[in-house]
Amino acid sequence: xxxxxxxxxxxxxxxxxxxxxDNKKATLQDIPLxxxxxxxxxxxxxxxxxxxxxxxxxxIQKYCFEENLVWEYKKALKDFDDEDVIGSPYSIxxxxxxxxxxxxxxxxxxxxxxxxxxxxxxxxFVPNHFSADTDFIETHPEIFLQTDEENYAADKHTxxxxxxxxxxxxxxxxxxxxxxxxxxxxxxxxxxxxREFMISQLVKITNYCDGVRCDMAMLVLNNIFRxxxxxxxxxxxxxxxxxxxxxxxxxxxxxxxxSFLFIAEAYWDLEWELQQLGFDYTYDKKLTDRLKxxxxxxxxxxxxxxxDFQNRSLRFIENHDEERAVAALGKERSKAAAVIISTLRGxxxxxxxxxxxxxxxxxxxxxxxxHEKTQEDMVQFYxxxxxxxxxxxxxxxxxxxxxxxxxxxxxxxxxxILAWEWKxxxxxxxxxxxxxxxxxxxxxxxxxxxxxERITLKDLLTGAEYVRSSDEVYxxxxxxxxxxxxxxxxxx
Length: 492
Description:
By secondary structure, the chain is α/β, with parallel strands linked by helices. The protein folds into two domains: about 5-395, TIM Barrel, CATH 3.20.20.80; about 400-490, Sandwich (Immunoglobulin-like), CATH 2.60.40.
């Protein structure tokens, strides 16, 4: 049976500092267990501890003070100073826990504590690259993408000679649309040795967690990798492999750990392809963008995609790469968007600080966040929403998109309202969201055959109750009127 679950992302290196004392820097074992109790009580199923792996301090001064980065630091952290820069959590030395967070034993202990509470642990897998100063350059140089002197001399932004590289030139990692990330070194996915090595790293990670969020997963697809690095690959004589890395890697891991979860950060309309290669979930960035744009018809059309795609989509309105939802959408529209992503099929994805209405997106290289006042109305809203959506009907029920109909001739506002229904045995939930900055009205036809002549619809968001005629709702439609960005979640 399909079960729709939820995941909560924590920027671990920053978040854990709130538990420091005068005598000791907090490690994973010092996190109060009540934190995990509270998240489990909200209906969260997976905890994604983002950024637990060790990075290379030597890269910080060399690569983390570019002018554009410093501008971002100052924008997010008004009293920023150089000591706040701790390096990117996606420029890692290897899959060893960052000593600032504790030990491997503590990570295993935490996983067991989460399991006691019905929670599972997700960690990062960074398939495309390692830190530009990783020790693997010395011990496993064959896994990285090398280049010749001609390319190195022509483009020293993309290519470099690491201090431990024996004078050889390697490529910094990149995607096809942006300049190279200078604090990284590119892996060569057309090399069998690279694939074997990275699968061995995945096997290692399974000892610590119940699944992985795979950073920029589409970059190692054969066609994407060839389009990005074709010139070098041809020079070096590497040919396109027959199989995709993900198909091989996921099948190997799931043969041993069938329940191990694979989540792909994915863009460029490659989500479906990655799902077919074995990913349990892929980012639904297109929905996020459409919620930001606010075109209701495009949002509705997006929800018409195939059931398999919907079921394996990760729904979010913010994460560490995205602008905070309250800042991007405004408070009321962010609430409406939260109702949407929390009541769709797929995995519901929440970000630490989202429930408190935080507005500042923190660059991943920073190790300290600014103080932001908690918005109590946002806390109350999310507490209520999560209390509603942790019900079994939103986990294992059947979802269906509903049509909205005009209330009167020439009243086009019905197009502003999104509506869907959940069913589980004799339970029903009707979700309606006015995703427009004006009052809107519509009618929604519900199949109430077999219901009493008069039915009561209770709005779980507000507690209000409405008594209606079953025949009228079935024949003419339930009348809905919502102010801008307001929602109903009816139980009946």
